[in-house]
Amino acid sequence: MASLARAISAMEEVAIIGSGIMGAGIAQVMSAAGMRVLMYDISDEFLAKAMGEVKGSLDRMVKKKSVSQSDADGILNRIKTIAGSDYSALSNADLVLEVVPEQMPIKEKVWKALCAKAKPTAVLASNTSSISITKINGLIPSERQPHFAGFHFFNPVPVMKLVEVIRGLQTSDATVEKLMQLGKRIGKTPVPCLDSPGFVCNRILVPMINEAIFAVFEGVATPADIDQVMKLGANHPMGPLALADMIGLDTILSVMEVMHREFGDDKYRACPLLRKMVDAKHLGRKTGKGFYDYKKSKL
Q1: Cross-strand bridge partners of residue 162
Q2: Is the dihedral of CA 112, 114, 116, 122 positive or negative?
Q3: What one-character DSSP code corresponds to residue 97?
Q4: In the chain, N or C: fewer CB atoms in 10 Å?
Q5: How confident is the model at residue 174 (pLDDT cuts 50, 70, 90)?
Q6: Catalytic hit among 53, 147, 152, 210
Q7: Domain 2-194: which CATH class?
Q8: Which sequence spans correspond to the domains of the chain?
Q9: Would you say 278 and 271 are in contact if contact means Cβ atoms under 8 Å apart?
Q10: Is 129 annotated in the active site?
């Protein structure tokens, strides 16, 4: 156990592949824990937007006096951005965390490139919200598979305490324990679970959101009234439709499709209204319109 603790404390550099809202948030919390962060994406434009998100988050924390300006500056300075798919710079990373879109062809391409550059002792992980960890692990060389697991954060990453540590069929006990300890080091509450569609949180949460969308689709109540009912009746801090807009309706649909396919049970059938909204690019906060209009509203 002492050797494992030393291994965790020796984790000084992490490579994050993907700079979307989740990648940026993870970069912030890793850097805040004192780790050097390499954040990759396909373009400087995406990376500049991500660093803007991190700076905005830190500025709000400084204003609330939850972090000093010097500490905020240090967090920003420990994050290095790299555009493109030349992963040579991650050869010293102790953890390589993939946060790319939930599409297997993209993940396969990324993991093949990552494994060619990552050091042999690196812990490898995916932040996937629904795709099988065992299936992703099957994309990488067999000698690396024991070092791979799911490390699933929740949005907004700097605020949400939970991180799911997901064991695939090939994942070693040591890898799970390293990620459990790392989760604690970065100020999260890590919870272990086995690889199953949707894992724990999304398996329960996303079908509830889908049911709320069905209630809108069937004219049972307006989105605002449905959210009000769930906030007052179930003591939820945010209604399911506002939460769907925050998560992204495309992500909600992706999770529902994975669970429907993997379980083969129609209780996981995505609502037709959800599909139409995704087709219309009404994805929620990230596009300015979902169940609420964020271009006009401050919801």
Answers
A1: 189
A2: negative
A3: E
A4: N
A5: very high
A6: 152
A7: alpha beta
A8: 2-194, 202-279
A9: no
A10: yes
pTM to 2 decimal places: 0.90
Reply yes or no on whether 137 is catalytic.
Answer: no
pLDDT in tens, 182-230: 999 999 999 999 999 999 999 999 999 999 999 999 999 999 999 999 9
What is the bridge-based pairing of β-strands 148-153 and 162-167? Answer: antiparallel
Q: Which amino acid is at 195?
A: D
Q: Is 202 an active-site residue?
A: yes
Which residue is associated with the tokens 């300015």? Answer: 288
Residue 80's alpha-carbon distances to 14, 19, 161, in angstroms, are: 11, 12, 25
Residue listed under structure tokens 């970069």: 27
Rounded Cα distance, 24 and 13, in Å:
16
Please state, in angstroms and rounded to a whole number, the distance separating the CA atoms of residues 271 and 211.
Answer: 8
Residue 260 among the catalytic residues: no
Give me the helices (H) in the chain, please: 2-9, 21-32, 44-63, 69-77, 104-115, 133-137, 173-185, 201-217, 223-233, 240-247, 249-263, 272-279
Sequential DSSP letters for 136-150:
HHTTS-GGGGGGEEE
From 126, 202, 210, 254, active-site residue: 202
Determine which one of 31, 164, 210, 254 is catalytic.
164
User: What is the rounded distance in angstroms from the CA atom of residue 178 to the CA atom of residue 110?
Assistant: 23
Query: pLDDT tens across 19-54, in order?
Result: 999 999 999 999 999 999 999 999 999 999 999 999
CATH number of 202-279: 1.10.1040.50
- The strands making up 13-17's β-sheet, listed across from edge to edge, are 79-83, 36-41, 13-17, 95-98, 123-126, 148-153, 162-167, 189-194
Rounded to the nearest 10°, the torsion over CA 84, 157, 210, 239 is: -140
